Amino acid sequence: MESGDVFVISAPSGSGKTTICRLLVEKVEGLELSISYTTRPRKNGETEGKDYHFISEDIFDKMINLKEFLEYATVYGRRYGTSREAVGRTVSRGTDVVLEIDVQGGRKVKEALPGVVLIGIFPPDWETLSRRLQERGRDSREEMAARLEAAGKEMGELLTYDFLVVNDSLEEAVRQVEWIVRAQRLRGERVRRTRERIPRR
To answer: Where do the domains of the chain lie, and which CATH numbers do they carry?
Structure first.
């Protein structure tokens, strides 16, 4: 039976993972972006169901109790979760799915789905990371300091991921992640499970 793969993309804030994920699903056919649930308020320019599913703390608690999350985590005081049913539905029809989540979530998905492919995105250096956080203008000075402090620990944990990509050039970073996805589709196990018969001599 044909089934898709699950890819997790994690990175410190300001490393460009959101942009990379958006461009990736535009370039690669048969790849969808999982939309996370969150308890944080919607920011200007964000769209319900496109950027996130914005829900209350009570609803988030109910989803936890019903075991509806493949993974969930608290990040900077707000909770984020991935729908188990939505991911399952996507891969069951042979479509790959990419999860844009932090390293906490990545570890939990790996425990639940050992075959998941973990991709870590790194900034080229600390100065670039700090500048990117400042330029996006979304965080207060305190929030920015917290994100930079967390980045060191996150990058250490990302070293355990299956693939590591340095986002020095956005175009090149997207290309490298695309190579990873396409290479995964050519693995023997994937080909065997998506084709009824492999030609033999």
So the answer is: 6-34+95-194 (3.40.50.300)
The count of residues in the chain is: 201
How far, in Å, CA of 10 to CA of 136, rounded?
Answer: 19
Please state the pTM of the whole predicted model.
0.86
pLDDT digits (tens, 9 = 90+) for 12-30: 877 889 999 999 999 999 9
- Cβ contact 133:14 at 8 Å: yes
